[in-house]
Amino acid sequence: MAVLRDPRDGCPWDLKQDWDSIVPHTLEEAYEVADAIERRAFDELPGELGDLLFQVVYYSQFAREAGRFEFADIVHTLTAKMLRRHPHVFPDGTLNSRRSDGAVAESEVKARWEALKAEEREARKAQGTARVSALDDIPAALPALSRAAKLSKRAAGQGFDWPDERGVIDKIREELAEVESALADGDRQHAQAEVGDLLFAVVNLARRLKCDPEQMLRRTNHKFERRFRHVEEALAQDSVTPGEATLTQMERHWQAAKAQERPQPETAERQQAETPERGPSQ
Fold it and tell me: 201 with 171: CB under 8 angstroms?
C-alpha cells in the first residue's frame, strides 16, 4: 500500500484517493463478502475477505501518511477492546489469562457486553467527546434497515418495547391503516412518511423474531429475482416479452415458479422423518 501511494513510483489512481473517496468501495466490499457467504461461495470468500481487509490497510496508510496512527495501532486497539469486553474469557484482562470455573450463561455475557458499552459511552462523555444516550455510537451511515434494527434494539434494552410479538403486529396494522388513510385523503406526502413508520414497525417484528431485517430482505430480493427471471424465460418460450404479456400471463408463470420451489409431499415427508427432534439445549 505504501508503494501504491508512493508519490514517485505509485499508482496514479491510488494517489488520488482520500478518506472519503474510499468509503463507497469499503461498503461495496463488505456487501460482496456478505453475498459470497449467503451464496455459500466459499471458494470466492478468501478473495472477497482480502478485498475487505485491503480497505483497512488503505485507511491505515492514509493515517500513517498524516502521522495519526498505523496498522499495528488498529490491531492493538481491537485487541484491547476485546480483552476489556470479554472478562468472562480473559478475567485478568490479558491474553494469557483464563477462567478457572465453568462457562458463563449467554444472557450474562450479553448483559455484561451492553454494560461495558454503556461504560464506554460514559467515558467518552467525561472526555467531552460524546453525548450520553442509549442511541449513541450507532453509525448514521448504516443501511436504513440495519440502523433501524440497532436503534430499536438499543431502545428495547432500556425497556422501551412491546411485551410480546402481538403488540408489534398490532402496531404494524396501525401503521398500515395510517398509510391507507393518507392515500384515501389524497395526501401522498403523508402516505410516504407513514410507509417509513410501517417499515420501522416491521423491523421491530424482525428484531423480536431474532432475525436481521437486512439479511431477510436480501433473501427475499434473491427469491424475487429468481422467480421473475423464470417469468421472463417462460414468456420468451411463448415468444412474448414482459411488456407484451398480460398480468394474468405473468402471474401464471410466477405461480409456476413458486410451485417449483415447494418441496414435493414425498420429499417433505422424507425430510421430516430424517430430521431428528431437537431438545431444549439444541
Answer: yes
